[in-house]
Amino acid sequence: MIMPEVAPLLDSMASDIKKTIYPKHNKEPAMVGIHTGGAWLAKQLHASLGLKQPLGLMDISFYRDDFQGKGLHPQVQPSNLPFNVEGQHVILVDDVIMSGRTIRAALNELFDYGRPACVSLVALVDLPRRELPIQPDVWGIRMDLEPQQRIKLSGPEPLTLTLIDSKA
What is the pTM for the complete model shown? Predict the structure, then answer.
């Protein structure tokens, strides 16, 4: 399977955010990227959209529900949300949404900062294998993969998608 280029997907996502997310709200949203891939994507989307509020970055390592089994990621980053979350429309950005568990963890952490007015979810790749009822509002590409396959975003320069087959 040939992986798509990331740059055109980001352009399409920025356009979709303007068309589908902006009209629902009367003030400019804040953006938060989930470390690591979502943070790379959020930096580019934030610049492309010309958002004025500073970009927030979130590391959900301590909020994961598989923390006991997998342990702590060796490169835990501090979260930084340099704006008031209370009453704010937040666009949450991740690289790949599959089970929905990463987003659940991100929402838990986000609500520890305050109660946003609403949260919109943006993902570069949507893999429809949900374990939780969480869906992206905007995505770059929706893909169906075999159960043993995963997608990895590498970066930050250049951003590239790679298909990983665990049976190989």
Answer: 0.92
